[in-house]
Design a protein that fits this description.
By secondary structure, the protein is of the alpha+beta class. The protein is built from nine helices and twelve strands. The strands form two sheets. Strands 1, 2, 3, 4, 5, 6, 7 and 8 form an eight-stranded antiparallel β-sheet that branches. It has a four-stranded antiparallel β-sheet with strand order 9-10-11-12, sandwiched between helices. A hairpin with a 2-residue loop joins strand 10 and strand 11. The longest helix is centred in the C-terminal third of the chain and has 18 residues.
Length: about 280
């Protein structure tokens, strides 16, 4: 999750699927921002049938039932969710039988009336990825996962998004296709240089990065130790201990230099105003 929402601050629809409501102009932007701002999601898989004559602990009668679980998540540059899963886990065995999954991104944390907050249900197909960039991006988002990511039973899975269902509050409900989500492509120049670019930017802006993070209600300081963990065409991800934050660029970028300039602009604006700048995804 992003910090702001935690403290209460601020996929194709097929012909045989539900009829989509007309999307508001900012529905896709809300959906993308919510996905990128969350560092965890509820993962729903279809409970697998017993294998080789053996029944899962839930019993053979559980086969086919929805199985929800908690998963840490990162997003690729193109908005595809990335999961680090153990093949010993129930949900991974389920994915091996049926790759169709659901992910619930919850933006209602800290709200007095949670149903007024945004949440996004993403439907897609999960497949194992041996792309080193995916693993590196996940581990920057979740550095503590490095402790077990190298175990033989763990692997990264990429989710190919097919459609998404955004509930942005009472009566603000939209089905969005993958095209309708407006997800960007993977800018290879930015993706391939991300590790080096992050190192340079974290060094150059170490003192100013906390200014990019919205101040949670009632708090008097943002804390120190914020670092950039990811750059993508639409913005940057930050982390400080158990909190994450998301800040959007003013416009999409597709190379390291334009990302550097976009971040510098946000830092300068935040320094002038004495606080968060750009379109925040919060700290969570």
């Amino acid at each position: 999750m992003s910090v702001t929402e935690a403290f209460g601050a601020s996929s194709p629809v097929r012909a045989d699927g539900p009829s989509p409501l007309p999307a508001a102009p900012d529905a896709a932007g809300q959906a993308r921002r919510l996905m990128r701002g969350c560092d965890r999601a509820t993962l729903a898989t279809a409970q697998a049938e017993p294998k080789d004559g053996g029944a899962p602990d839930a019993g053979p009668e559980a086969a086919g039932w929805p199985y929800p679980s908690l998963a840490l998540v990162a997003l690729d540059h193109d908005g595809s969710p990335l999961l680090l899963l153990s093949n010993l886990a129930e949900h991974t065995r389920n994915i091996a039988r049926d790759p169709r999954i659901g992910l619930l991104f919850d933006g209602t944390g800290g709200l007095a009336q949670p149903l007024t907050g945004a949440r996004l249900s993403v439907l897609g197909r999960a497949a194992r990825s041996d792309e080193p960039r995916h693993r590196a991006r996940f581990l920057r988002r979740h550095p503590d996962a490095a402790f077990y990511a190298g175990f033989a039973d763990f692997a990264v899975y990429r989710v190919a998004v097919e459609r998404a269902h955004l509930v942005a509050g009472f009566g603000r409900i939209h089905w969005l296709s993958r095209d309708g989500l407006g997800l960007p492509g993977v800018p290879l120049a930015l993706a391939e240089a991300e590790t080096d670019t992050l190192a340079v930017l974290n060094d150059a802006h170490a003192a100013a990065l906390p200014l990019l993070v919205p101040l949670p209600p009632g708090a008097t300081e943002r804390g120190e130790g914020w670092t950039l963990t990811g750059l993508d065409p639409e913005g940057c991800d930050l982390r400080c201990g158990g909190y994450v934050a998301r800040v959007d660029f003013d416009e999409r970028t597709d190379d390291p230099e334009s990302a550097r300039l976009a971040l510098a602009a946000l830092v300068q604006r935040a320094a002038r105003s004495g606080g968060a700048s750009g379109s925040p995804g919060g700290p969570r």
